[in-house]
Amino acid sequence: MKLVMTLLVRDDRQAVEYNIAYHLSQGVDYIIATDNRSRDGARDVLLHYQKLGVLHLIDEPADDFSQPNWVARMARIAYEHAHADWVIHVDVDEYWWPLQGDFKDGLKAIGPEEDILQIHRFNFWPLTEPKEPFWRHMVHREVQHSITSAFGGGPLPPKICHRAVPEVDLNVGNHKISSPYLSAVSDQKPFIIFHFPYRSYEQLEDKISKGGKALRANKQIPESLAGRWRLLYDLYLRGQLQEWYQSVPKISPLTEDAQESRITKDTRLRDFMEELMVRSSMAGSKV
User: Which of 148, 152, 178, 286 is 20 to 30 A removed from 227 (C-alpha atoms)?
Assistant: First the structure.
């Protein structure tokens, strides 16, 4: 079984480093990555892994948020050139967590007639005083995967994992997929996703200022899609994004161990990453 991951990158170098190191250590065999106009060294990270032979890099200069097309292109390359059996579409702020063993162990249990997995995400709360690395300090997540009410939104849609096929179409955010080669959605959930959408205000502003502008330039994406991006970009243009960010629930140093009905303390990623950093240091790895 060969598992290939797609990754769309625009800056956020350190997060890219952590994300790639993590997923490779959990059973991803190869990565198809698209760098979209990075300027902070994130592309250098991708080049490093390409030299190691575990990543194929695509440079995408367009500034029009054509994310569905770019991800579909990566999925096609995963099938045609990387000879993938399964493909996962990962965002830089997502850490896919296998519920048993590694990714391969979870996929082995999927029946041959099942093509698509819908993977639930759980938002982690940011800190009132951000610290790096974020995974060491952000250890409180929402209990429910189905709502984002604490973050001012509606239903939190799952992400897609699917068998590799010659042709796929995905929507903005990789929440839905269509293909003449895929049909059967599995009821099994071998993974969950640890989601870190807001790590600091500076990170949020950088993401929204670039992505929102690109999204507005794309007239092919209906106004009904990417609503959160559009909302936050409008707030950014009006100078109100920081005020909105202050309303996002956070964990303070004084209350970080407090248990609330909608959050739970989850240290699985932190513990895994601590061990990974020790192994990487011993091996002289980049991360």
Answer: 178
In a domain, 41, yes or no: yes
pTM of the model: 0.94
E-strand stretches of 183-262: 191-195
3-state DSSP call for residue 153? coil
| Beta strand residue intervals within 113-217, DSSP E | 116-119, 121-123, 140-142, 159-163, 169-170, 177-178, 191-195
Average model confidence (pLDDT) across the chain: 92
Task: Please state the φ and ψ torsions of residue 119, each to the nearest 5 degrees.
Answer: -105, 125
Q: How many domains does the chain have?
A: 1
pLDDT in tens, 248-280: 888 986 665 555 678 899 999 999 999 999 988
Q: What is the DSSP letter of 125?
A: P
Write the CATH number for 178: 3.90.550
Cβ neighbours, 10 Å, residue 237? 14
**CB–CB of 142/193 below 8 Å?**
no
User: Which tokens is 49 given?
Assistant: 């892994």
Q: Which residues contact 238 (CB under 8 A, 6 or more apart)?
A: none
For residue 83, tell me if it sits in a domain.
yes
Query: Distance (Å, rounded) from C-alpha 280 to C-alpha 277?
Result: 5
Q: DSSP alpha helices (H): ranges in 56-112? A: 67-80, 103-108
Strands 86-90 and 159-163, bridge-based pairing: antiparallel
